[in-house]
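User:
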Amino acid sequence: MNFLTASLSYAFLGVDKNVGGQAVIEGVMMRSPVKVSTSVRRPSGEIITRTEPYLSLTKRHKLLGIPIIRGIISFFEMLVLGIKTLNYSAEMAVTDVSIDQKIAGPASRKMSVTLAVTVVISLALAIGLFFFLPILFAQLINIHREALMFNLIAGIFRVMIFLAYVMAMSSLKDIQRIFAYHGAEHKSIFAFEADLPLTVENAARFVTLHPRCGTSFIIIVALLAILVYSISDTFLAMILGHQPAILQRFALHFSLLPLVAGVSYELLKISGKTRNNLLTRILIAPGLWLQRITTREPDTDQLEVALTALKSSIEGTNLSTRFVGV
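Assistant: Predicted structure:
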């Protein structure tokens, strides 16, 4: 299981419906404004669901809910929640113990340690591949005199690495199943946004490509980074009196990642609200094209799991009152 690939499936919370999700191992996590529910199909065929209360820091503290800042907070909340959810799904997907039994202590701890090591390695790999290597590539081909050209080349190289990475992951059988659950997550959310009863038949009618998907978010980040890093490199060169060295660029770019993520989050929310606008459709097209790789058509069993998680996440909230059978 690859932590970074699974994290691509995260869909940020929308403005109107306020539900987002993430595909996990043999299941789906759904998050409403007040609850997080994770449903997993166990080896026995049973669907097990864990629901917990969850209130974002952006809702608990007014200052953290202002534009851009809320995007930064949501970005880190996504990572923490994603790790926690993947850990749970990994335990449930490979265990056939009773729903009331606890996972055996040593086995559970071993799995948790394994996942933690995987996360650390994956994050280190991501930093190296998507931040340091593009800067090194642009530096090696001697594109360092002009900030815009340097970051344009680095940005193109970063996107190429990302595409190669996703395509390589998509060839793995386990990842293909996660991508199918990713598609089930999107179809379920589409049915929810359309105010339809949350049934497999209704969800199956929709496409697997969603404009608020985390895959689209990553594309927005990559494109916005070119502009932000070009401006920051120009100011840094003015301060230093010369073009920054590779490690100086890396440190500056990495430190500005939360800002880039925060602005990208706002752009993603806007795209979700104005998805029918012609300009918006043009701008979100690259993210939707990429989702043709990161989503697959789910079967009815996978849709059932996604809908179970969605229903549980909105049950007892004002979001559930419009839906028959929720």
